[in-house]
Amino acid sequence: KTSTGSGGRTGTGKSKPTVGDTFRTQLVALVEVLDTTTPWYVRCLKPNNTKSSKEYDDELIIAQLRYSGMLDIVRIRKEGYPVHVSAREFLDKYRCLAAKDKDPLPKDDKKAAARILHSLKLPETEWQIGKTKVFLRMSVFEPLEDKRKKLLTEKMVVIQRIWRGYVARKRFRQLKAAAILVQKHFRGSRQRMKFLRKRRAAILIQSHLRGMFARELVAAIRKKKAEEEAERRRLRQLEEERLAREEERLAKERAEKNMEESYRIAQMELLTLAKIAEHKSQKAVTKSGDVDLDQMFKFLSEDPKPVGKEEINFLADVTKDLEELFKEAQKDSPRTKPRKPVRRAPAPPPPPGSRRTAETPDSEDKMSRTQRRQRRVMKKLLGVEDEGKREEHFDPDAYPMIKFAEMYFNDFPKDTGGFSTLSLRRAPRVKDPISKGEMLVYTKSSSLPTSMVHMHDPENVNLACSIFKDMCKLLRGDMKPEQHHLTIQSTIAYGIDRPELRDEIFCQLIRQVSSNPKEEAVVRGWHFITLCITAFPPSKNFKKYLQAYFQNNSSDPLVGKYSSACLSIIRLTKVAPRRLPPSSIEIAAVRNLNPLICRFYFLDGKAKAMGVDPSSTASDVIKTLADKIELQSTDGWALYEVNPEQEHFIKAHEYIADILSQWERDKRSSMMMTKYTTVSRRPSYQAALGGGDSKFVFRKRVFRQPKEIPDDPVEYHLMYAQAVNSAVKIDEFPVNEQVALQLAGLQAQVLWGDFDPSLSSRFNDVEQFLPERIVLENRHKTREDWKRSIGEAHKKYGTGKTEIQAKVWYLTSVKHYPLYGSTFFHVTYKGFWPYPNKIILAVDLEGIKFVNYKSKKILATHKYSQLVSVGVDIVEDAVSLTIRGSHKIPAEEQTSYVFETDKKEDIATLVASYSPVHSNWQKVGEAKTRVIHVSEEDRAKLWQEVWACRKALVEHKMLKEPQERSGNFLTTTLRRYNKARMERLRKAQEEKDFEKVYKQSFWSYSKSLIKQPLTVLEGEDMEEMSLCLFYTIQQHAGIPPANGAGFEDVEADDCVTMVQLASQKCLEKEALCNEIYLQLIKQTTDQPEPNGKINIQNWRFLSLVCGVVVPRNRVILNYLQAHLRRCSIDAHTEEGKFAQFCMQALTRTLQTKNRKYPPSQREIQCIIRRRPIHERFYFMDGQFRALEFDSAATSEEVIAMVKERVGLMKEAFGFSLFEVFGQLERNMLMQEKVADAMFKWEKYARSTHSPKVLKLTFKKRLFIKPYMNPEDSIEMNLLLHQAVEDVASDRFPINMKEVLYLVALRAQAALGNPSETIGLLDYQGLIDRYVPKHMRNRVRPEELQLKHREYMDMSDQDCNEAYMSFVRQWPLYGSTVFDVLQSYTTTLPKNLWLVVNENGIHILKRRDKEPLVTYNYKNIVNYSPSLKNLMIVTESLTRGTKFVFNTSQASQIAHLIRDYTHVIVERQRRK
């Protein structure tokens, strides 16, 4: 039905649902959901009525359980069957309890369950089986669970037992296998050791047996030679007798005999006069040991008197001795050297007995051994003779050039097309090369695709191609003469400087002169070859081939003379190659195969010209010169190069041609051929070199026996000329006026003969007879007076004497001076000692003497037994002498003296000549190299260590696996493996031998850039940086790869910046440190040329890094140490020397930890030469001492070195090092590294473009009473100069009167007594040096000159003591003064002095002596420095006084306060 209201709306229309409709709809939906589920009802119980937490009402809970019927349900459930499970579940759970039954369970689950319950004999009233479930009471359920649990426990024990047994058996098998492996290796090692011992024993037995055979052979040879010598002696004696009989009958022989007799008489007269002079001179020696020359020369002026008995006996003894001497030498010519006695060979063993009746088995065995020995000796004799013949005969056919070419030449393409691959990094492989024979034949092409000989350095390859181009142009004759000489000199200079290029130059020349159609080109080429073989030798591999080539061409009509000359040169044994390329004169001389005509001067003013071969050394020239002038012995004689700048000793192995080349470079006038006057009556040459500003002088250098008289008249004349030069021109002896005139009289007698009053002009040249010092000391005498005095001395002491007599007396007189036989070197002492700074260092047979520069008085003498070492500074012109037990110092302590001189090497070589123990002076300062004698077994062990370290690197997964090309596109991209397959592949990869993955190329040198880092790095930036480091290493070695990039803004040849940037990266990142060490080890392993430039550059890089940072990873450190140990065993190679140097640097860096900064430029320059760092350490007087220290040296270690070098006592306290850079000054902490300070200030100077340099200054910092040791004069001098510097730098309060007094004291100490030679400019210099800057305009030089006169005749020591006494009068002496500003309080001025000493801190007004405020260290509560400020709190933190000072030295003040506080605390603790 429908109904319609008044409004027209129907009843069936949709209306808004009511709340009841909504509830009914939701309820219906809930019922539908519940019908689809299995309901579980939860009984909710209220814990309390107050709805509060953590409150539980027991009575309320029990009441709810009782009223809800829960207790009744539990009781009913308990009385019934509370456990009911399905039959399937029951069977699955308890089937194990029926396992013991033999019959199988029924297939029906309910029957099987009933079977299990019956088998367990459980009462049937306690369980029931329904349709699908089994109902159980608790009395049945609990026993079932217990039995099941017990059964499961037993089964689990069985399973565990079986499993543990399996694990134990497996472990046992593994241990057994491991034990067998260990036993196998141990037994193998033991057997190897036994074998090695047996092999060593066998070798020892063999060596002794071979030694016995060799001794037998030598004995037989000696016997044979003795027999031959006896026969020759007999024949010689017969021949001499026959000649003697003939000589008696010949008049000519009688005349020669008369000449020899006259020579003998002259020599007897020379020795007799020398004996008489010695006898007379002994009487002239006083008791004190001084020589009374007036007494010695007295007999010359006396009238002849009758000879007394004493003189007659003396002359008779002398004559008798001389007669015996000449009788012994009568048979030989007096000009020949005595022959050494021939050593006789030991007598051979007696032959065995000849009686048969006495023979026994032992005697028969002895006879058989003797016979075998004789047969063996005969075979050896025959073999030795044949071998000697083979050695004498060099077979050139055995060493053809084609054989060398096949072994060492590169491959050339057949047609280069004139294209040279100078720009190619790596030469491509030649597919169809030309034959090696064609490469040894002349070619018209002027370019090469690459070098002929295989070379490793690409720079040398490029130079080889460039040299060949210039060489072809030279041989064609397309160059001007000047350019021709420059090309030869530059090519030979490359060969001298680069040993790798030498064989290349020879091979290029041989190629271009072989089958060359132009004879002129062939001659030019052979001329070039002769110059090259004169300048440098070929390599050992090429020498015999080149010698065979010369020998094959020695008979050539065109170039045979050049080839013969080259053959004679290559057979010579040279110590070293030439130092400089040939000069223009040498090139012209070699073209004609003429010698170099050189002039050699003697000290008597005469000269001798002779030809010098370009390959001759100084020792060769000395021998030739001695033969020319008939000098019997050259022992002690040497050549000197004398030029206006210096006098240089020419070492025996130096080439004369090198000195001529240096003269040509310096444009000396001596390189011009000039006429000369020679000592020879028939000169062979009219002009010679060496007549200009540079000369060769021949004189005695080493006096082995200075007091003995030589029996050679030539040597006696030369020594007389040298004595005149030493006494007159050089003034080496302390002769007075009277002795000088006496010697001048003898000298005039030698020159002019007897005195002639009419020829007084002979004495016009006064300086020829008297030292300049004698003339200057007697200014009241005119030159006429001196001429008259010399003439009188000539008449009194010389007249009546023969030339020989005058020479004997002159030389005998000079020999009595203690300094005779000494070589003088003018040096300046760098330090503080009681002697003048400028002295003479005299070196002679006895030792080293310190001689006064003016008086020639010996200040100190040190024997060679006291000399510990001689060190030559490689940077400064200085030589250091370490002497044991000098200046009242105990014998066990040492003192080091450093002298400044430009003849440092001459001093060291002369000391080595007298004392061979000190011949290692060249190695002083170098890293000590140990010569390690190792066997092949030891080498194998070192390689095994390296292999073990590599394996450890792989096992620790530190290395990045190299990328390998394996498979094709499908196998590498489309193949898919399941998870198990991938796991098996991974395990197989891990178990694979690491050597198959990391091949030898991974560990050894690589010429090309690596594709990836060697270690595992995090991030692409780190990997790119690692590749940049490797590029830097390659660039530093001189072989930058074609691709890749290094550091930005670094030039290719700026090795210093490369090393610094690389080291800085390693200091910042530990991972990069590990990476660069592995890269450097790689680049120094299996280098093709261990002594080549590339390998040396890599080792230099490694040595620099070892001195800065060490790898923190222990595995990499072990690998590095093993690598260095392996390479250091070959100490004779550059690689071995650098390896030992790296090991030392690494050990020191491990001791003192890593550096803060990379190496400085000075450090790099020293380390690459395997030398310690060389640096100057300055003192307050402006002097410095150059020291050498390693990269890890701390400030404390260097301070100890400075104290030892300057001679400070060990007890000297408070000295420190200061970094002084202009006006900046900073004290170095004891643990700071000096090398870090050098880099820090070098970087600062470079960034600020400052021309200033760092000065490491040594001075006292902590002054503790007593401030100095009065017994230590060196400490007193240091403190004196420090006080002088404090006054001059305005750090000492002083007024005008006081400053004038102090400067006057310094003037007296520096200038001596006032004189006319001291002008106002000298005093102005003292004012600028010693007066504070703000007072210099107020001090006038005139006032200082007047003040200086007040202290006349005051000694230097008195002046220094007076200066120190005045300075120490200030109560705050010993304090460190700091200029500070303060604006924190108005009670103090703005500009202040903050003074710190051992008593506390003192605040003074600037330039005032009295402090405004003083605080002890006990009153200082806190002090806090910042960059520009220093805050000090005294008395108390809350109520105390606070000071804030503005200063840039805040940290220095804080450190000084801390150090003084520490000293005070230590002193109190000791008390």
Summarize this structure briefly:
The protein contains 48 helices and 29 strands.
Specify the helix fraction band: 40-55%
What class would the helix/strand composition place it in?
A: alpha+beta
Q: C-alpha Rg, in Å? A: 51 Å
Shape: extended
Q: Please tally the helical runs, counting DSSP H or I stretches of 4 or more residues.
A: 48
Keywords:
1471 residues; alpha+beta; 29 strands; 11% strand; extended
Note down, in words, how this protein is organized.
- The longest helix has 112 residues, at 138-249.
- A hairpin with an 8-residue loop joins strand 11 (823-829) and strand 12 (838-843).
- It is built from 48 helices and 29 strands.
- It has 1471 residues and is α+β, with helices and mostly antiparallel strands.
Topology:
Elements: H1 19-35, H2 58-67, H3 70-79, E1 83-86, H4 87-94, H5 109-119, E2 127-129, E3 133-136, H6 138-249, H7 251-283, H8 293-296, H9 298-301, H10 309-328, H11 361-392, H12 401-408, H13 436-439, H14 458-476, H15 481-497, H16 502-513, H17 519-535, H18 540-552, H19 560-570, H20 584-591, E4 596-602, E5 607-612, H21 618-629, E6 637-642, E7 647-649, H22 656-665, E8 674-675, E9 687-688, E10 695-700, H23 713-729, H24 737-752, H25 772-777, H26 783-798, H27 803-815, E11 823-829, E12 838-843, E13 847-852, E14 858-863, E15 867-872, E16 878-884, E17 894-900, H28 904-914, H29 936-955, H30 969-974, H31 979-991, H32 994-997, H33 1000-1003, H34 1020-1037, H35 1055-1068, H36 1070-1083, H37 1093-1106, H38 1114-1127, H39 1134-1152, H40 1161-1167, E18 1173-1178, E19 1184-1189, H41 1195-1206, E20 1215-1221, E21 1224-1227, H42 1234-1248, E22 1255-1260, H43 1273-1288, H44 1296-1311, H45 1320-1330, H46 1341-1349, H47 1356-1367, E23 1376-1381, E24 1391-1397, E25 1400-1405, E26 1413-1416, E27 1420-1425, E28 1429-1434, E29 1441-1446, H48 1450-1470
Parallel strand pairs: 4-10, 18-22
Antiparallel strand pairs: 1-3, 2-3, 4-5, 6-7, 6-10, 8-9, 11-12, 11-17, 12-13, 13-14, 15-16, 16-17, 18-19, 20-21, 20-22, 23-24, 24-25, 25-26, 27-28, 28-29
